[in-house]
Model the fold of this input.
Amino acid sequence: MLTADSLRWAIGRVHGTMGTAAGELNELDGALGDGDLGVTLSRATQRLQEDAPNLPADVGTALFQCAQAFTRVTGSTYGTLLATGLMAAAKATRGRTEVPWTEVSALLGAALEAMSGRGKSALGDKTVLDALDAARRATEGLGEPAALVAAASHAVDAAIAELRGRPFRQGRARIFREKGLGRDDPGMVAFKRIIDSLA
Done:
């Protein structure tokens, strides 16, 4: 079951990963954008780690507080999108202290819909939404944490590889046109690192 305790565990894992992946993500982002994605996520997860002991038992309220932590620390597009996704998941789980793992796919779907509306992006635009959708589809019907992580990780890897040869259609990266061909989207890679931290 997804609980506040499992959220605290996940926050610790993701925070540790972002500390080591920040350089990689900054470099990927720097080739096409501001070059601060790693720093942004490192700061945001540091704030989550600080707030984790005070998360309430209500999963929805806990997720909402995580979203608020992101909005307080970062004004970046990526941080805003993640906060939007967390808020959607919070709405779907409000009032519950335990959420079956089989609902993870549906929660990813709720986050995807909210983030797509907020970012005015579509699947195939070579953004984090493509990674999120791949994870959503791969985890449907799964109810065991290790299986969820493994399926999502494999699916996101495949999505990154599939889109590598396509142009970027959103954000600052889209102005680079041919330069974007053969490059991975930093947001998709960041999402992959988040998933893999939970293995």
In short: The mean pLDDT is 89. The two ends are 16 Å apart (CA to CA).
